[in-house]
Amino acid sequence: MVAEDSVTLPLLPAGRATPPRAPRAQAMDRERVNDYGIGMLLQGDLVAAKQAFERVVALDPKYADGYVNIGRVLIQEGSHEAAVPVLTRALAIKPDLASAHYFLALALKARGRYDEALRHLRAAAERFPRDRVVRNQIGRLLFLKRQYKAAIAEFENTLRVDPEDLSAHYNMMLCYRALGRERDESREETLYTRFKADESAQAITGPYRLRNAEMNLERQPIHEHDSSWTPERVAAASMYNNGRPRPLVAAASVSHTAPAVATASERGGR
Fold this sequence. Notes:
single chain, mainly alpha, CATH 1.25.40.10, 3 domains, flat
């Protein structure tokens, strides 16, 4: 005999039911579920996103970003009043969290509580002074409060970051119109029209997308690549090309969304 060992296993009394095994939550579970929730939120599946974020805060009740993300879902649902206490709880955990200030401001703005919303937006701007989204929201609130000159100053802050920001040019046009400054209004209207997406381009690209089904698929914000191209699908994709099949690029099945512009107002959501 080279070695010997023994193990004593505790046994339940006869007739006693085996208790359910509770899975142990790990630190990575919070990030994994949170990322899943963000994916669902980006795809517009608010129910699945909210369930995921509620699971996140159940795993870690002190994770402020989890409450922020629940608040984001509630805001998109239009439940602004319900979002206020959730986002307030996030700030109680992490008072300097810019994303919590930003989304709380959106909820307060929707309820007409402009002064409170401005306070939170300015707190977010202190953390991320070059965030165009935050600056535009501050300017918009000042416009709604009829503080047009102060609003213009905020939109100018936005244009220092991105001279082609559509929201800033449009709202500055409205501010100058309210102030009766027709020349400045005309300039901002011209710039807004210049940088605005050309809606007539849809008529130009439409026939091409009809002839190229897979290209039209790529253009959709949410779509799925599927490697299983059946003869029927190949024929359908080629029907607008005089019946001549074209090479079809197949990829592994994966769903994704079109790239979105990330802003500091959404930082901390992961």
